[in-house]
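Figure 2 data, in text form.
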Amino acid sequence: MKAKYMITLKFCFKLLGISTLMLTLSSCSDDFLELDPESNTTDASFFKTAAQMEQAVIGAYVPLRDLTTLEYWLFGEMRSDNTTFQYYNADRGLENRDLVDYFLIPASAVDPLETFWQKSYTGIARANTVLDYIDGISDLEEQQKKEYKGEVRFLRAFYYYHLVQQFGGIPLELVSTTNPSDAHSEGRASKEEIFNSIIEDLTIAVENLPTVGHANRGRATSGAAKTMLAKAYMAQGSYSEAVNVLQEITEYSLLSGDSDSYRKIFDPNYSDNSEIIFSVQYLGSEEGLGSTFLYQFAPNNSGNLVTGDPQMPTLAAGSGWNHPTRDMIQAYEEGDLRKEASLSLGFMDENGVFVEQPYVSKYNFGFDLSGNTSVNFPTLRYADVLLMLAESLNEEGFSADGEAFDLVNQVRNRAGLEDINSTEVTNQDEFREAVFQERRVELAFENHRWYDLLRRDNIVEIMNTHGEEEKEIRGDIVPSGAYEIDDNSLLLPIPQREVTLNNLEQNPQ
């Protein structure tokens, strides 16, 4: 008797998911996937055709959609000083998300800590499976093999980049697991070893991937691999290497031309715009394939006044997340067009009374099906590249009104702001602060803030200042020990399940 499984995604595929260590995939069709039971089917016996390998590659992208829907913004934005949450006393079922913001998340938290780990290693395992079996596919052209290898190496590096930044040293899995006896990890690799693997993967991906986009949007390109490679170098303080890579990224441009240009970057009607280097794709017209940022980030007391969805007249614990902090709101200069395009200070109730409750509106472009939108998430874009290059050039040496100034001013001018110059920004330290500030407002709510903070020597000071402000605003609802941040707080605890099963050393807390 054969087992049947079905999971759909925008790229039109069906896959059989098996845990974080193995996957088995089949061809693209609208029929249910029919496979022999797992006991009778192995990766080696399954991956035989080009069509099967295509679906295996697509399968390695799948965890990105789920991670971007929740964990990436939770750990990239809400863990930083950019965003916080709206306390919802009626339902405390998602309290672990609060604890991420408070820096009190326990190792035992399944959701979101363990799910972050598991989803990431699922993507890594699927990439490993492709690399282990692709050379045995006889009906696959060599050029296509090369591109597939580039895609999954990019994805493996992408997953590892987020893991190592959040957890530090982690298990380094580079081959697929073929039997249960091989399932246990060999312990935690060092951060240096993880970054070396990331850099190796991305260097190969740059050479293997096409410059122009894939026919199916959302697939990796050499530009995406270069951008991630530069991020890896910068995370290690290797700024000269980052400069060399970033200066090669020339096939993109800022979306500009009118006062709405910044807003259009995120508009699904302009999803192919010249600024997007890599984005996570969603399809709101298919149930379960759409993004939900519109609903998650809406105030939980706004009913459908923010979402405009008549079928969802009330919101509850699933909303009220990732709200801009007071400090974030005040970070925008007067006249910055990005502020209105990125956040709202509140909403009008049924009686026309303004309710003050700031929320992220950057991804609010209506819905397709109730609860589903087609808004993609811009993971990498050209403004990020310009600001990374400006930062890296400055770290190599301050140059008054040099190239780094021009790069920052391109981004500022699009936002309706005047140039900065060496009269007001007079040295390397001041420019470092200027580009750090520019990254904050340009890339707000795009999951870069925590990783930018990690490059700062004063991250603990910044986060403790943020914590004091939050305690002042929130008062009695803040639990004891919240926002007490030191160097140990910069790493998340390893999920307790992984510590137990794989005998991993826990991060100090």
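Caption note: Strands lie at 3-5, 15-17, 23-25, 33-35, 83-84, 276-280, 323-324, 343-348, 354-360, 377-381.
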